[in-house]
Amino acid sequence: MAVETHERRRGAPRNEAARLAILRATASLFATRGYDHLTIEGIAAEAGVAKQTIYRWWPSRSALVAEALIEGLLLTGPFDLPDTGDIRADLVAWLEGLFVFLDDPRNNALICSLVAAAAENPEIGLRLNDALGATTLLAERLDAAVAADDLWRDTPVQEIGDAVLGVLVVRALQRTPADPGLPARLVRVLLRDPAGPR
Amino acid sequence: MAVETHERRRGAPRNEAARLAILRATASLFATRGYDHLTIEGIAAEAGVAKQTIYRWWPSRSALVAEALIEGLLLTGPFDLPDTGDIRADLVAWLEGLFVFLDDPRNNALICSLVAAAAENPEIGLRLNDALGATTLLAERLDAAVAADDLWRDTPVQEIGDAVLGVLVVRALQRTPADPGLPARLVRVLLRDPAGPR
Amino acid sequence: MAVETHERRRGAPRNEAARLAILRATASLFATRGYDHLTIEGIAAEAGVAKQTIYRWWPSRSALVAEALIEGLLLTGPFDLPDTGDIRADLVAWLEGLFVFLDDPRNNALICSLVAAAAENPEIGLRLNDALGATTLLAERLDAAVAADDLWRDTPVQEIGDAVLGVLVVRALQRTPADPGLPARLVRVLLRDPAGPR
Amino acid sequence: MAVETHERRRGAPRNEAARLAILRATASLFATRGYDHLTIEGIAAEAGVAKQTIYRWWPSRSALVAEALIEGLLLTGPFDLPDTGDIRADLVAWLEGLFVFLDDPRNNALICSLVAAAAENPEIGLRLNDALGATTLLAERLDAAVAADDLWRDTPVQEIGDAVLGVLVVRALQRTPADPGLPARLVRVLLRDPAGPR
DNA sequence: GGCTAATCGAGACGGTACGTCCCGTCTTTAG
DNA sequence: CTAAAGACGGGACGTACCGTCTCGATTAGCC
């Protein structure tokens, strides 16, 4: 019978309060100052912690950001994806919400900072989908729509998710405000209705 | 007309050799060391130039990168977009080339560095399209295809370009190698053939 | 004709005010806190100077102390060596002054700190003689006394100086207060009068 | 009558093996790395002991050195003081041995390290005499010589010992190699023969 | 030709953050 | 109660760059 022997190490165990304080300080400073300007010393000071305690558990600044992102401390999402039965209308509404979010320069800067962090740490790139809901919410909804025959059977759900996230990232990097028709046009491209106009 | 308004100042004129040496040093160090690790002092040393000469003409590190990008010193492209008459096949071939490019970790790192620089400087984000050919090449080709009735009249060319660039960026940030079918699936999503299977 | 071409280096010249502020801060902190507890960061802060400015010109903490010692910022001396014609009486008086100086714990600590610094940096050891006057004052006086036939012709002046300094150092390290007869006994040993008692 | 007053505490008794390992590690690291560079963590690692075990029994780094010195782990002496009947010749020979010892830079560094430790801890200063034999050996010999009427009755034995030790310390701090005549000149100063030349 | 103004190299400077080392204390498991 | 293990807050280390500045040297236009 597989007893969990769990060979307990000697010495004081890791201080969970310190870990949380560090991640929270990371999130707070990341949001207010951006990824550049985010310093280990600043985090340590904000968290009331010695620098070495950070270096003991995280190999880099970007790893801190990745963990804070995973813990949901960086992006408050999810951005609700409505379910009215019309998959295209729902998607347009969801994208409109995202573009409104991006219109606030502070949010735009937040996304840019996340992208900068992702450029240093692949894990952040991988988690960006989840964090913005492009994977969890969108993929589930698309899968359901495919199952309900609202979309073609061979719809490449993964690629659509990447494209949505990609457009968001690219527009965030360009700091161009979205024009009102953008969400609809995007949906028209990504979920082209076969009965649509030639 | 066209009077030489350029009111000639007194004193020594700007040293073009220094300007070029600086941009070349920027490009070289950017390619080898990445955007983080790119330092003004390093560029000055590599270019055999005083720091002040850099600060005199560029406001920031990212401005240097932007100018080097514009001058075509960072990305050797363009990645040729073939023209066989079949817009979808051409696009698939072009994307395959880009994903092969991204499969080399050094190129992937280069793109990530560019994205990191873009996160600091919107101009770099705007130039990324051009640099990767997503605007110039792709948009022209799509416009031509629309004109030739190979694509719907209302095809949102701009959005497709953003989506293509976005997918490339997102996959670069995730460092995931592309599977062989990806280019075809992407083209199927973005340029859905209305005569395709339901 | 030997013109002093004095090949002038380019770049800003060394800031003499900063140099002095650093040495003065060194002296001040050395006197108040002791050699251990003397930190580069503390000196930089006290002098209102960047750390790098210190590291640019001095290789180590002990080099700072050595230069401060040479500049006469550490020991206020000289401890006057009286000249009444009686070399032995003069020496006794001088030593009494030195032992009174050592009786103050702060002065004792100062000497111990200097010895600690000398243990790291030979130059400090070499300058200790001068700083305490054991070389300049004492040696001159002894030489004069030899010339005046008040001491044997073969009196090893250098060794007497070392012995005097050595006794002071050893007693400082032991923190033993000097008993009143010590100076006289020392002089009796070092400048034994041939007509003295057997 | 020798009652065992040593009120036996509860719990595990002090681990003598650990104590010895710590002192031996102290001595080893002190000899190889010097007093600065001697760290509690280094000693603990070398001795295979927890830091707390050191802090439980010794108040400071210098106390460790003091105890290692007392246990004879730091200086291998004694440097034999020959006894040929001629006190002056014996002393010259003994001093020559000491200066030869000091001529090896590693020994010189060892003495400097001891002096640095003494600057922090008076006890080490007090033990230095014993350790170098300046007290035990020299003082006994001088006392015997006085008793045998080879030296004046009022010879200040203590001061001569301090002077010898002092000269050694000062020359060690100056890192000046001794010239061949130094021991003889020192003995001439310290044990001046009244029948000597004027 | 002298004057003024700008550029350029070199590099000193005050400052910030880096990542590492070690301090002395505390907390846990083991004996 | 001792001991090994090791986490912790703290402080200083020596280094790397930042962006600004002060130099001497050079190169133009202007009187």
Structural commentary:
The structure is a homotetramer of 198-residue chains. Chain A is 64% helix and 0% strand. Chain A contains ten helices and no strands. In chain A, helix 1 packs across helix 4, helix 4 (61-70) runs parallel beside helix 7 (122-132) and helix 6 (105-120) runs antiparallel to helix 7 (122-132). Chain A is elongated. Chains C and D meet through helix 6, helix 7, helix 9 and helix 10 of C and helix 6, helix 7, helix 9 and helix 10 of D. Chain A binds a DNA duplex (31 and 31 nucleotides) through helix 2 and helix 3.
- Spatial gap, N to C terminus of chain A: 66 Å
Dominant shape of chain A = elongated
> Which percent bin holds the helix content of chain A?
55-70%
- Radius of gyration of chain A from the CA trace? 21 Å
Mean pLDDT of chain A: 89
Taken together, the total number of domains of chain A comes to 2
Order of helices and strands of chain A: HHHHHHHHHH
Beta percentage of chain A is under 5%
Strand segment tally of chain A? 0
Quaternary state of this entry equals homotetramer
Major pleated sheet of chain A: none
Compute the number of helices of chain A.
10
Low-confidence parts of chain A, pLDDT < 50 over ≥5 residues?
A: 1-5
Biggest interface in this structure?
A: C-D, 44 and 46 residues
* Strand-pairing-aware structural class of chain A: mainly alpha
